[in-house]
Amino acid sequence: MNRYHNNQLPPGFHAASNEIKAINTLYGLIMGITADQVINDNEIHFLNLWLKDNEAYTRSFPLNVVKQRIDDILADNIITQEEREDFYQTLSKLIGGTFQETGAAGGFSTSFGNQEPDELIVNGSTFCLTGAFITGTRDKCEQIITELGGIPAKSVTKKLDYLVIGALASRDWIATSHGRKIEKALLYQEQGSPVTILCEESWAKFINITN
User: Do 92 and 145 fall into the same domain?
Assistant: First the structure.
């Protein structure tokens, strides 16, 4: 557990950079834990202890997601096979699939949380773009939305209709403003707002259909 005398941070401690380090460490742990494509009880308890040692960052995405899932699993002190398999799927989605599945050792998946709807209503809807897009520059993507009758938005609000996450990102993307927008969108969803989170691949598919 991280504890500091009189609640003062130690000299040389930088909250933002240490948060990124914690997120990247979690990424590495998940890569190792999912390498054999199964989750066992010892690994779940290990992650739980690690999260407690890094409690200062557990309000940040994706540490908050992992913590909530573990809290739910351990709530009754019984870990079922269904919970193990579901937790494995969650961790795999967070890192975009295991190394065996993807053959790559990249960062957290920008498709995590993708909530592809049955249809995409562009005309009159608001879209906030975050990250870098394969489709083109941010201006180009916003132009496409505008031409189809949509309304580009610069920030995530409770009235936002769609948050679209670009496919190009670095390992640190999830601790930057991109990750903050996703975290805010998830929070608003929990509060009942209708915002839908889309990865670029899903967004582009619907845009092509619309065209």
Answer: no
CB 90 within 8 A of CB 26: no
Give the list of residues 6+ apart from residue 129 with CB closer than 8 angstroms, or none.
138, 141, 142, 152, 164, 166
Sequential pLDDT tens for the chain (211 residues): 444 444 444 554 445 567 778 888 888 898 889 888 899 999 999 999 999 999 988 887 678 878 988 999 999 999 999 999 989 988 887 776 544 443 444 455 555 556 778 889 999 999 999 877 777 788 889 999 999 999 999 999 999 999 998 866 544 455 555 567 887 888 888 888 889 988 888 888 888 744 4
In a shared domain, residues 80 and 136: no
On whether the CB atoms of residues 168 and 156 are closer than 8 A, the answer is: no
b/e map of 125-142 (b: 16 or more CB within 10 Å)? bbbbbbbbbebeeeeebb
C-alpha 101/C-alpha 21 separation (Å) is: 25
Question: Element (H or E) spanning 158, and its range?
Answer: none
Among 37, 70, 102, where does a domain finish? Answer: 102
For 93, the 3-state DSSP assignment is helix
Expressed as residue numbers, the domain containing 166 is: 126-210
